[in-house]
Model the fold of this input.
Amino acid sequence: MKKILLGLSITGLFLLGAGTTFAADKGVTIKGEAQCAKCSLKKSDKCANVIVEKADGKEVVYYVAKNEVGDKSLPHKLICQATKKVEAHGTCKEVDGKKELTLTSIKVAE
Done:
């Protein structure tokens, strides 16, 4: 009986952990300003695409992961010396203490 209860407990914990991983990969929509992490924000030694969203009176910085969508739809030269309002869709995860956004689509305001 104890072995059955132990097995059910372990299974329950495993399923709970699997649900948490699934939630972390959930799609997000970010509305904010695309800009350069080095030139505009002064938060990096190298140029990098970031999207800054204002939420609850705070700025949240999302570093844009390198992928085909980002390279084609948000070329760095577009935002290196200027900022652009954007609406981005993708998945977000934490990497080295920073939020990393992998784009699935992005609209740049004209």
Summary: The first helix runs from residue 2 to 24.
